[in-house]
From TrEMBL:
It comes from the Bacteria. Coiled coil: none annotated. This is CaiB/BaiF CoA transferase family protein. GO terms for molecular function: transferase activity. InterPro entries: CoA-transferase_III_domain, CoA-Trfase_fam_III, CoA-Trfase_III_dom3_sf, CoA-Trfase_III_dom_1_sf. The lineage of its organism: Bacteria, Pseudomonadati, Pseudomonadota, Betaproteobacteria, Burkholderiales. Keywords: Transferase. The keyword Transferase applies. Gene3D superfamilies: Crotonobetainyl-coa:carnitine coa-transferase, domain 1 (3.40.50.10540), formyl-coa transferase, domain 3 (3.30.1540.10). The keyword Calcium does not apply.
Amino acid sequence: MMSNSTAKGALAGIKVLDLSRVLAGPWATQMLADLGADVIKVERPVAGDDTRHWGPPFLKDDAGNDTREASYFTACNRNKRSITVDMAHPEGQALLRQMAAEADVVVENFKVGGLAQYGLDYDSLKTLNPKLIYCSITGFGQDGPYAERAGYDLMVQAMCGLMSITGHADEQPGGGPLKVGVAVIDVFTGLYASNAILAAINARDNARTGTGEGQYIDMALLDVGMAVLANQAAGYLATGQAPGRAGNIHPSLAPYQDFKTSDGNVLLAIGNDGQFTRFCAAVHQPEWAQDARFATNTARVQNRTALLALMVPLMQTRSTQEWIALLEDKAVPCGPINTVAQAFADPQVHHRGIAQSLPRQAGDGIGHVATVANPMRLSATPVTYRSAPPTLGQHTHEVLREMGVSEARISALYADQVI
C-alpha cells in the first residue's frame, strides 16, 4: 500500500541525525525516513555527500539537459532534510551536539574514533542524551586487527568470499570471480543497521520491558558480508568444503538455472519434486520423473550432467515466451531474464507502483525526481513519500530556525562558513 505525503508513518515522532554518507548509512536512514522518521542529513558545505558527484548518470532538468547532480545520490536519500554544517568548526560541532541532544538516533560511518575529536562520538553524546541510540557503520567493526582499515563494498565482497561463489567456473568461458552488479554489502548493511536501530528503539521505549536508555550499535560490512553468505556459509560449516562458482546453477537444487531458448534465455526454478513432475508432464516426458536418476531433488543434483544432457536441447525447441506460457499455469516457476528497462516495463512492476516520481521544489530546474518504491507494505502505517532527495543544504535555514537559532546568528554562521 502506498501512502500520500500527508500520512504519518510508523516512526512518526522519531528524530534521526544522519552523519553518514555514500550508501550503507544513507540506506539505513532512508528506511527510517520512509517509515516516518524525521531524518536530518548533515553534509559538508559546498561538497556535500560524495555520491552527489558519482556520475554519470546525472539527473536531467525539466528541459531534458544533464545537471551536475548524480542519480546515485537519489537512490538512498529521499524523505530527508539536508543541512550543511562544517563539523571541523567549533560552532558547527556545537550545533550538531545541540541536535544530538534532542535526537532519538545518530547514524555515522566515519573511521573508528573519527568523531571523538569533534565531541560527536557516542561517549560524548550519551552524556548529553542518555536516551540516544548511536549506530556506527564501518568496514570491519570497532575492534579487531582490521578495525582501523577503511572498508568498501567491493573490497568486502572479495574478502567475505562472495566473489568466489559469483560468476562462472574458471574452466568455463568468462570464468573467474565477479562482484554482484549492485553494492549488495552496503545495501544489506543498511538493512541490518535499520533493523538494529528499530530493535534498540523498542528496547528503550517498550511499555513493558523498556529501559528508557539508548545504546551503541556496532555495524561492520565484513560481518554483514559473512552473514549474507547464508546457505553457502552453512554448507561450508557443515562440511568443511568451500563452495565454488557455478554460474547460474544452484548448488543444492536441479534444474534451477537459466537455459537457452530458440530466441534468448529463460530461467527455470524448480524447487521440489512436484514441480519437476509437472514440468515433465508439460513437455510430454513423464518418464523423466520416474527415472531413479531424477525422481528426487537429491538424485537430480547428483545426476545433473545427465539431466542437462536431456533438458538443454529440449529448452531450445521453444521461445522464451512460449516456455513461460506453457508453464505459468502449471505452478512451475519460469520467467524471463530481463534487462533493468524490461523489468520496469513489466506489468506486475507497473501494478505494484514500483517506480515513483517525487516533486522537488528547490529552484534548481528539476521538477521531479524518480525513485524506486520501498517494498515494505504496511496496512495501518504505510510507507510515506513526503519529499524528493534534497538539494545540498536545502533545509539548513529551516532546521536551524526549528532549533531556536536566531536569524542574526544564522546570518553570522553563513558568513563564517560554518553552514
